[in-house]
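Expect sequence, tokenised fold; for instance:
***
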Amino acid sequence: MTNTLSDYFTTNSTPDIQPTPVWQAHKAVMRGHMISQASCLNKKSKEEHRTLLRTLRDTTKANTVQPTPQRMQTITDTTARLNNLELAKTAHILQKLKQTTYMQGNKAGKYLATQLRQKQSNAKIPYLLTQGGEKIHNPQDINDNMDNMATY
């Protein structure tokens, strides 16, 4: 990362260019570099996961035909490594969830808006029967009649 940053400033720091646009543009360059690094890490992780699954499958097949202590040890080790990968993935997802929750703070997001919509639809009174047995569907009339019922 430091090589990318030093190369960027070496290439783009010239006397005829103001330092402000160079400084602002470096953020985009670094973001692109971090995205490519994350992509490489994801590819490596997925490849390792596939390799471990393949090893586990092949070793398990061989172990069912002819069991040996070495194969059992390989199966145990491979399973442990797969579990560690899954735990790391879960920890990463939880970290992202915590970060999102922290960034949103007390702001109403999609999740809260959906919950409020559901509660409003559940709390809505579709109609009200008056004392005369008449059904009232207008929300304002329902409100007025509820006020009148409360005063009795």
